[in-house]
């Protein structure tokens, strides 16, 4: 049995994760914690793995507290900067036996969309990303869109591909969206949506679109449970669930 603590347990993802852990035959939910609770409570409850679905402003401190306490971490919360990841990496040098998985998206379709778009992007002149979410989401662009853009930008840089053509010189209202690692990212917030992403690529006379849709938060659970099962076998910091998959 793997003893699991969930941080952010009353939230949309935390509550879904608690139910998934309780339903898993090889796991026990030993602590369901929220704002105001301390990671020490998870340790006292016998947790081995902490799952974090909290808020971007809290997640880094939670992970450092968990490392200090000797817990493996599976993190779905967004808002991670390169500097924040580097600090976790550095902290883990003091506890080389621990694993930390930080994954911007646990849905299989989203993981595949990130990998496939990075593989395809070098073959197209233009690439843009549209991410679409429920209106209660606090951050934009989504963590998934940021990670997707980073992967595409790295692949295009390696292949020596020119920036996407764009003749826009007048855009006083920001209609062209955010620019993440040189890739335009457009964020839609609409009641009825859960989590969706479209990566659009274009060449003269053709378009290639990769789309992933999470219609329900249960879509993230196989990935979260995979993370919980595997994290102790992957010491150090892993960013992205694809690090635990054969892709
Ligand atoms: N990686 C993935 O696959 C996915 C990632 N996400 C990400 O997960 C995060 C959570 O999303 P979601 O569940 O929709 O958000 P919610 O707002 O529904 O849940 C966040 C929860 O965290 C709690 N919380 C806030 N601060 C702390 C803290 N310091 N310690 C413990 N708990 C805290 C909140 O409590 P209170 O309300 O009392 O403040 C709330 O219960 C977001 O960053 C989102 O982008 C979402 C879906 C999938
Ligand atoms: O807040 C959400 O809902 C989601 N957040 C993650 C993100 O920012 O990419 C993952 C998924 O898109 C759902």
UniProtKB/TrEMBL annotation:
<feature type="binding site">
    <location>
        <begin position="103"/>
        <end position="106"/>
    </location>
    <ligand>
        <name>NAD(+)</name>
    </ligand>
</feature>
<dbReference type="Pfam" id="PF01113">
    <property type="entry name" value="DapB_N"/>
</dbReference>
<keyword id="KW-0560">Oxidoreductase</keyword>
<dbReference type="Pfam" id="PF05173">
    <property type="entry name" value="DapB_C"/>
</dbReference>
<keyword id="KW-0220">Diaminopimelate biosynthesis</keyword>
<comment type="similarity">
    <text>Belongs to the DapB family.</text>
</comment>
<comment type="function">
    <text>Catalyzes the conversion of 4-hydroxy-tetrahydrodipicolinate (HTPA) to tetrahydrodipicolinate.</text>
</comment>
<feature type="binding site">
    <location>
        <begin position="143"/>
        <end position="144"/>
    </location>
    <ligand>
        <name>(S)-2,3,4,5-tetrahydrodipicolinate</name>
    </ligand>
</feature>
<feature type="active site" description="Proton donor">
    <location>
        <position position="137"/>
    </location>
</feature>
<dbReference type="InterPro" id="IPR023940">
    <property type="entry name" value="DHDPR_bac"/>
</dbReference>
<dbReference type="InterPro" id="IPR022663">
    <property type="entry name" value="DapB_C"/>
</dbReference>
<dbReference type="GO" id="GO:0008839">
    <property type="term" value="F:4-hydroxy-tetrahydrodipicolinate reductase"/>
</dbReference>
<protein>
    <recommendedName>
        <fullName>4-hydroxy-tetrahydrodipicolinate reductase</fullName>
        <ecNumber>1.17.1.8</ecNumber>
    </recommendedName>
</protein>
<dbReference type="InterPro" id="IPR000846">
    <property type="entry name" value="DapB_N"/>
</dbReference>
<feature type="binding site">
    <location>
        <position position="134"/>
    </location>
    <ligand>
        <name>(S)-2,3,4,5-tetrahydrodipicolinate</name>
    </ligand>
</feature>
<dbReference type="InterPro" id="IPR036291">
    <property type="entry name" value="NAD(P)-bd_dom_sf"/>
</dbReference>
<feature type="active site" description="Proton donor/acceptor">
    <location>
        <position position="133"/>
    </location>
</feature>
<feature type="binding site">
    <location>
        <begin position="8"/>
        <end position="13"/>
    </location>
    <ligand>
        <name>NAD(+)</name>
    </ligand>
</feature>
<keyword id="KW-0457">Lysine biosynthesis</keyword>
<feature type="domain" description="Dihydrodipicolinate reductase C-terminal">
    <location>
        <begin position="109"/>
        <end position="236"/>
    </location>
</feature>
<feature type="binding site">
    <location>
        <begin position="76"/>
        <end position="78"/>
    </location>
    <ligand>
        <name>NAD(+)</name>
    </ligand>
</feature>
<dbReference type="InterPro" id="IPR022664">
    <property type="entry name" value="DapB_N_CS"/>
</dbReference>
<keyword id="KW-0028">Amino-acid biosynthesis</keyword>
<feature type="domain" description="Dihydrodipicolinate reductase N-terminal">
    <location>
        <begin position="2"/>
        <end position="106"/>
    </location>
</feature>
<feature type="binding site">
    <location>
        <position position="34"/>
    </location>
    <ligand>
        <name>NAD(+)</name>
    </ligand>
</feature>
<keyword id="KW-0963">Cytoplasm</keyword>
<comment type="pathway">
    <text>Amino-acid biosynthesis; L-lysine biosynthesis via DAP pathway; (S)-tetrahydrodipicolinate from L-aspartate: step 4/4.</text>
</comment>
<comment type="subunit">
    <text>Homotetramer.</text>
</comment>
<keyword id="KW-0520">NAD</keyword>
<keyword id="KW-0521">NADP</keyword>
């Amino acid at each position: 049995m793997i003893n699991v603590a969930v941080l952010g347990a009353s939230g949309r993802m935390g509550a879904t994760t608690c139910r998934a852990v309780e339903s898993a035959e090889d796991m026990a939910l030993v602590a369901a914690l929220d704002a105001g609770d301390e990671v020490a409570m998870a340790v006292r409850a016998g947790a081995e793995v902490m799952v974090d679905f909290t808020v971007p402003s809290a997640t880094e401190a939670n992970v450092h507290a968990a490392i200090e306490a000797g817990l493996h971490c599976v993190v779905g919360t967004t808002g991670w900067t390169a500097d924040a990841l580097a600090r976790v990496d550095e902290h883990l040098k003091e506890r080389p036996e621990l694993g930390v998985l930080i994954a911007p998206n646990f849905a299989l379709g989203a993981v595949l969309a990130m990998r496939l778009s990075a593989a395809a992007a070098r073959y197209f002149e233009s690439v843009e990303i549209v991410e679409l979410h429920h209106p209660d989401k606090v951050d934009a662009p989504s963590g998934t869109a940021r990670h997707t853009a980073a992967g595409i930008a790295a692949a295009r840089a390696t292949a020596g591909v020119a920036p996407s053509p764009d003749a826009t010189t007048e855009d006083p209202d920001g209609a062209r969206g955010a620019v993440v690692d040189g890739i335009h990212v457009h964020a839609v917030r609409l009641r009825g949506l859960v989590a969706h992403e479209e990566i659009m690529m274009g060449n003269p006379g053709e378009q290639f679109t990769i789309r992933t849709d999470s219609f329900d938060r249960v879509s993230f659970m196989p990935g979260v449970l995979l993370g919980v099962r595997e994290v102790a076998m992957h010491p150090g910091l892993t960013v992205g669930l694809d690090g635990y998959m054969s892709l």
